[in-house]
Design brief:
Blueprint: E1 2-7, H1 12-17, H2 21-50, E2 54-62, E3 67-74
Antiparallel strand pairs: 1-3, 2-3
Length: 82
């Protein structure tokens, strides 16, 4: 499994939108759609970096903190990297 944590992910426009509940919903929806469109490319990049196939990936976003986590399930056990 590969975990990717990111913070400070919002553009200035997204930061402004996140000041309201409606804006937060819009940003989360847009980010979810972008993730669905780019998922295969992200999985390919991670597969290249770790040297094995990626079986599936999952993603979530904390809209209030501007943090996201991505989880990639590898086709074989990987050595831990710290």
């Amino acid at each position: 499994m590969v975990l990717v944590y990111s913070s400070g992910i919002f553009t200035p426009t997204e930061q402004n939108l996140c000041e309201t509940e409606e804006g937060r919903k819009l940003v989360k929806s847009a980010r979810r759609e972008l993730r669905s469109l780019s998922r295969r490319a992200a999985e390919g990049s991670v597969a290249t970096a770790v040297g094995c196939d990626i079986l599936r990936s999952f993603w979530d976003l904390d809209i209030r903190s501007g943090e996201q986590i991505e989880v990639y399930l590898a086709s074989r056990p990987l050595s831990p990297v710290r």
